[in-house]
Amino acid sequence: MSENKDGIRYPSIDQLTEKTNSKYKLVVAAAKRAKELEAGNEPLISNPRSKKPLGVALEEIINDKIVIVEPKDNSLSNE
């Protein structure tokens, strides 16, 4: 059986969720990067499989070209 690697099927959600512990953070990061690509930024990967900016952003994440980082704890302390 051949694996179809176009559109939303590649990369898989299982692969993508290994990059962060939050689907929300994944969606936000991919959307921000897709907007940058729509604005004219060049893809960080050569020959992306997807033609759409969101698909390219997801491919960049799966290839570790975009790294989703955890924010530092900015909670207030009563010192």
Please describe the topology of this protein.
Layout (H helix, E strand, L loop, with lengths): L12 H5 L5 H16 L14 H10 L17
Helix pairs in contact: 2-3
Structure description:
- The protein has 79 residues and is mainly alpha-helical.
- Helices cover 39% and strands 0% of the residues.
- It has one domain (7-62).
- The longest helix is centred in the middle third of the chain and has 16 residues, at 23-38.
- 14% of the residues are buried.
- The model has no long low-confidence stretch (mean pLDDT 85).
N-to-C SSE string, H for helix and E for strand: HHH
Mean pLDDT across residues:
85
End-to-end CA span:
61 Å
Globular, elongated, flat, extended or rod-shaped: what is the shape? globular
Contiguous low-pLDDT stretches (5 residues minimum) are none
Query: What's the number of structural domains?
Result: 1
Rg of Cα set = 15 Å
Index terms:
0% strand, 79 residues, mainly alpha
Quick recap:
With 79 residues, the protein is mainly α.
